[in-house]
Amino acid sequence: MAHVAEVATRAAAKQLAESTADVVGSRTRSVILHGSLAAGDFRPGRSDIDLLAVIDGALSDPQIDALADLVRHADVGDASGVDLHVVTAGVAGSPTRTPPMELHVGRYDDSTIGFEIEPRVAASPDLPAELAMARADGHNLIGARPRDTIAPIPVEWLHQRGRYWLTTWQSLVDDSEDAAHMVLTACRIWRFAVEGAHCSKGQAASWVLGRDPSLTAVRQAFHQYATDPEASIDQDGIARVLETVLRETARMQ
């Protein structure tokens, strides 16, 4: 059944990419699928469709409205929502530490956030990580290949931004809605710091537990993410994961 769900969701992602390209028109350089659906770790009802659109020039107001409406009403197959980022080819080809972003539209069907739209963001410090993951593991659904449109991202930018989030999350261990995301992303940050490898949440969790099986919050977080959304994650365990990853990644500075 999981395979059937993945096939259906890939078809939905392809349709969404084509519709995005229709809105942007001939200025579409590439629409790239990345994230769990591209990495082979898709979880029905838990994973998003992650798309990055690279375009020539800026979006118009009507195009921003059309893309937001497209994401809001899109068939997402068995995904839990959509994350669509739109950047110019200039930004993708020559990124900075805090590059501008044309548009982010997020639809999170099982979250209290629900739906968000961020047009014309002047400085997006998390965008380099998005670009790096799309370049490393993404698949072009429309247009050029990721490595032909996205330049390499300096590793130190990713290390520093990862540690920023680890530190921020230390004050949010009681946030039950985002607990699994924090723990599993911390695992991804740790593995990337050690091996320079972008990977899925599941792959990162297995890697961390192989290094330190005593980090029980990792096992709990992956169980919640993959199997039981109602499962709890121990707050002290979350704090320990964050402390461990901060300590281990400090040597990578």
From TrEMBL:
Domain (Adenylyltransferase AadA C-terminal): residue spans on this chain: 153-234
Pfam families cross-referenced by the UniProt entry: AadA_C, NTP_transf_2
Record-linked SUPFAM superfamilies: Nucleotidyltransferase
Database matches in InterPro entries: AadA_C, NT_sf, Polymerase_NTP_transf_dom
Lineage of the species this protein comes from: Bacteria, Bacillati, Actinomycetota, Actinomycetes, Micromonosporales
Keyword Nuclease appears in the UniProt entry: no
Domain Polymerase nucleotidyl transferase per the UniProt entry, residue ranges: 29-71
MF-aspect GO terms: nucleotidyltransferase activity
Protein name: Aminoglycoside adenylyltransferase domain-containing protein
Record key words, sorted: Nucleotidyltransferase, Transferase
